[in-house]
Design goal:
alpha/beta, Rossmann fold, eight-stranded mixed beta sheet, 8 strands, 32% helix
Length: 232
């Protein structure tokens, strides 16, 4: 895991998006979790009833702003609360990441009316690795997860045994990704299916590692997948 994170931290900065365009409805929040301070962006829709929430996890070398921008239009249309953490580029963060994500979502609940049965997580690249962690360690908190450009390293297969519930997972992977092994993503898909996890898998022909090049294409599909899922 550490060698993978180090490689992504060095290379993924090549795959960031266009500059973020600020929106008056977006707040920057700082919250104390696990004895540290973490920043995240929060976007709350104009909606009277409880809204679904989407935790967005960016890749190494990226920031929360482009990730929020990629989802902002769809979230406004579908009335989705967006929570976008600023992820540290430190391997040791993985050990506390699920607890930090829960802490940030709970903080967001102070400002937004969130449907607790419809909280989802989507991660890109390094954020995808952390989304797998969230799906396994907090299977009774996140209704479903989606991942772009990442599998589970074989030495971390044990995290599947931590799930108290078989979290539905959608995986999106480019055929020509230069950073992440397509073979291992196939292995991850088969492992999840063998363990009884519902899996929606989409392989993108001619696509590399750059999520933002396909965001407009896959985000609606991710949301369709999420809309069908909620906690019991």
């Amino acid at each position: 895991m550490r060698s993978l994170l180090a490689r992504l931290a060095c290379l993924c900065i090549l795959f960031t998006a266009v500059p973020f365009v600020a929106d008056a409805g977006v707040q920057s929040r700082t919250v104390e979790c696990e004895g540290q301070r973490f920043r995240y962006l929060l976007s709350v829709p104009n909606r009277r009833e409880a809204a679904p929430a989407l935790l967005l996890l960016h890749g190494a070398g990226d920031t929360p702003e482009p990730m929020l921008d990629a989802w902002h239009g769809l979230a406004k249309k579908e009335k989705i609360v967006l929570i976008v953490p600023e992820l540290p580029r430190r391997a040791e963060f993985e050990g506390i990441a699920p607890r930090v994500f829960r802490c940030e979502v709970e903080d967001a609940k102070r400002l937004a009316t969130i449907d607790a049965r419809r909280i989802y997580v989507f991660g890109n690249s390094m954020g995808g690795y952390l989304a797998y962690d969230a799906a396994m360690f907090d299977s009774d908190y996140f209704a479903a997860a989606a991942v772009h450009a990442m599998g589970i390293a074989p030495e971390y297969d044990w995290i599947l045994e931590q799930a108290r519930r078989k979290t539905p997972i959608a995986i999106y992977m480019g055929e020509e990704d230069p950073l992440v092994s397509l073979k291992n993503v196939h292995r991850t898909r088969e492992l999840l299916l063998q363990k009884g996890f519902p899996v929606h898998y989409v392989e993108l022909k001619g696509h590399d590692h750059n999520y933002y090049r396909v965001a407009e294409r896959i985000n609606p599909d991710i949301w369709r997948f999420f809309q069908e899922k909620q906690l019991p």
